[in-house]
Structures are given as structure tokens and as C-alpha cells.
UniProtKB/TrEMBL annotation:
Membrane-spanning intervals of the chain: 15-36, 48-66, 73-91, 97-117, 124-144, 164-184, 213-233, 294-313
Annotated Gene Ontology cellular component terms: plasma membrane
Compartment(s) of residence: Cell membrane
Domain of life of the organism encoding this protein: Bacteria
Organism for this UniProt entry: Zhihengliuella halotolerans
Record's bilayer topology term: Multi-pass membrane protein
Main location: membrane
Top-level taxonomy: Bacteria, Bacillati, Actinomycetota, Actinomycetes, Micrococcales
CDD domains in UniProt: TM_PBP1_transp_AraH_like
Keyword ATP-binding applies: no
Protein name per Swiss-Prot or TrEMBL: Monosaccharide ABC transporter membrane protein (CUT2 family)
UniProt KW keywords: Cell inner membrane, Cell membrane, Membrane, Transmembrane, Transmembrane helix, Transport
Molecular-function GO term, any one: transmembrane transporter activity
Length: 320
């Protein structure tokens, strides 16, 4: 075998290792196009974009936590509380609706701050800290709402409308994705998150404020979760106490499918977006093919298991 052939095979192997989710998404789209001509139509693709927007925005923030070798199970509940407080601000308190988005974002950031402090300074594992926050926040959502939906403000409802022919959720997803990619790849916050996730002890010895980094990534995760909650509430035109239930699992799956490592130190916003698209396309395609929602859960579970298994094998290869 010539050196050129060997090099070409190594290049192909490296491309597939780094862009497996993208290749899988393309293959998946082609397969669904062959299975049902309705898949690659304008209205359906816009529908996929709207469906993926909430999970993608939530997963963008979660990527920071996973890169720093943490996990945040509370993002779905934080999204619900942010949307609920935002709606309660206008509906029950009769306060200015223009501030409702700011209030929702602040609630998300505050939840992330509390989780980060519990983990960084309280020495709780991120799994336990975020699990506790999941329960607390969902309970607060039910207390505030008294178990009833609350109409959103016009500002939040605008997030669920359209900007010309393009739905606003897609616009928000693209803008937040660009911001998240810039922060993760081009700022000290992102570089420190990679350092902490790659080797926390080495990061500490290098003078990186590890505790502050952990708190910061959880605040970012909460901020994006708050925005995701208001995106979903804007589409429904109401904040509901059961909003975004189970969305944390899809957000985690999107980051892992997109190439982020649960061991930390690896992750890309573009990969997270692709992972979210993979999940949305699978669900959309199965709906078009009239597959039972029960079987859809089975398929999604298999995809998540394969993605995590691939991550484990990749880390073993790197280690050896």
C-alpha cells in the first residue's frame, strides 16, 4: 500500500471521526427523502427548523457545562420557570411587558448561578446539584402558576411569530448559535472551560479560577435555558407548568451526538446544532412515516446509546 493511499485513508478516517454527526445527518435526510417525498419540501423543512430551535438553544448553553466536564439536568425545568415568571410578571403583577424577556433571562441565569455555586463551592457533584435544581425549579413553577397556564406578554409571543417568511425561532437559534460559538471558541470563558474540562488539576495549577469557571458555565447554561423556555412559550402563546418536560435529555443527547465528550474538554456549537438537527429530523421523518410515538422513543434511545458508545471508543483510541 502506497504512502499516498495510507494518508488518504487516514484523512477519511479523521474526517469521519470529527464529522460523523454531519455525515449521519446527510445520510438520514437522503434516506427520508427517498422514503417520503414530503420530507424535502419547504413547509416541512421550516417545521423542522421550528422544532429544533428550542432544543438547539438549550443545548448551546449546555455545551459549555459539558465542555467543562459537568452536566446540567435542570435546563428543562429552568426553561419552564423562566417562561412562567416572565408571563406572571405581565399577567398577575401587571408590570411592563417589554421587560418580560429580561426577567425570564435573569431567572434562568439565577438558577444557573445557584446550581454552579452548589457544585463549585458546595462540593456537590454537578449531577446531584442539577438534579436537585430540577426538582426545586419544577416545584416553584407549579407554585407560581398554581398548576394553570398563564398567557405570555406580546414581547415573548413575538419570539414565536415570523420575521417575514422566516420563523423567529429559527432566527433566534441562528443568532444565539453564532454568539455561543464566538464565546466558546474566541473568549477567555470558552478557553478556560476547555482547560477545566480537559484536566481540572492542571487548570488549577495553571492559575485558572476553576470554581469561577464552573459557576460561569452554569450561568450561561441557565441563561440559554431561560431563552429556550420563552421561545417555546412564545410559540404556544402561554407559559405552562409542564413546559419543556424531558427537554434536558434531548439537549444532552444533542451535545453528545454532535461530538461533545461527557468526560469534558471536547465540544463544538456547530456539532451541537447538528446533533439537535439529527434528533429533529428523526422525529419529523418518523412522524411523516406514521411511526408510533412509542417506537420513536425507542429509536431516539438507540441513537443516544450509539452516540455515547462512539464517544467512549473515541476516547479509548485517543488514550492508546
Amino acid at each position: 500500500m502506497s504512502a499516498a493511499t495510507t494518508r488518504r485513508r487516514l484523512d477519511i478516517k479523521s474526517f469521519l471521526a470529527n464529522n460523523g454527526a454531519l455525515v449521519g445527518l446527510v445520510v438520514l435526510c437522503l434516506a427520508l427523502w427517498a422514503a417520503t417525498p414530503r420530507f424535502l419540501t419547504g413547509p416541512n423543512l421550516l417545521n423542522v427548523g421550528i422544532q429544533v430551535s428550542t432544543i438547539a438553544v438549550m443545548a448551546f448553553g449546555l455545551t459549555f457545562v459539558i465542555v467543562a466536564a459537568g452536566i446540567d439536568l435542570s435546563v428543562g425545568s429552568v426553561a419552564a420557570l423562566s417562561a412562567m415568571v416572565s408571563a406572571y410578571w405581565v399577567g398577575d403583577l401587571a408590570l411592563p411587558g417589554a421587560w418580560s424577556i429580561v426577567v425570564g433571562l435573569a431567572v434562568g441565569a439565577l438558577c444557573g448561578l445557584v446550581t454552579g455555586v452548589m457544585s463549585a463551592y458546595g462540593k456537590l457533584p454537578t449531577f446531584i446539584a442539577s438534579l436537585a435544581m430540577l426538582t426545586i425549579v419544577r416545584g416553584l413553577t407549579l407554585v407560581i402558576s398554581d398548576g394553570r397556564p398563564i398567557p405570555t406578554s406580546d414581547s415573548v409571543a413575538f419570539l414565536g411569530s415570523s420575521l417575514g417568511p422566516v420563523p423567529m425561532p429559527i432566527v433566534v437559534m441562528v443568532v444565539t448559535g453564532l454568539i455561543a460559538a464566538f464565546v466558546l471558541n474566541r473568549t477567555v470563558v470558552g478557553k478556560n472551560a476547555f482547560a477545566v474540562g480537559g484536566n481540572i488539576e492542571a487548570a488549577r495549577l495553571s492559575g485558572i479560577p476553576v470554581k469561577r469557571v464552573l459557576v460561569t458555565v452554569f450561568v450561561i447554561s441557565g441563561l440559554f435555558a431561560g431563552l429556550a423556555g420563552m421561545l417555546l412559550a412564545g410559540r404556544l402563546e402561554s407559559a405552562q407548568p409542564t413546559l419543556a418536560t424531558g427537554y434536558e435529555l434531548d439537549a444532552i443527547a444533542a451535545t453528545v451526538i454532535g461530538g461533545a465528550s461527557l468526560a469534558g474538554g471536547v465540544g463544538r456549537i456547530t456539532g451541537t446544532l447538528i446533533g439537535a438537527l439529527v434528533l429533529a429530523v428523526i422525529r419529523n421523518g418518523l412522524n411523516l412515516l406514521s411511526v408510533s410515538s412509542f417506537w420513536q422513543q425507542v429509536v431516539i434511545g438507540v441513537v443516544i446509546a450509539l452516540a455515547v458508545g462512539f464517544d467512549v471508543l473515541r476516547r479509548k483510541n485517543v488514550r492508546h
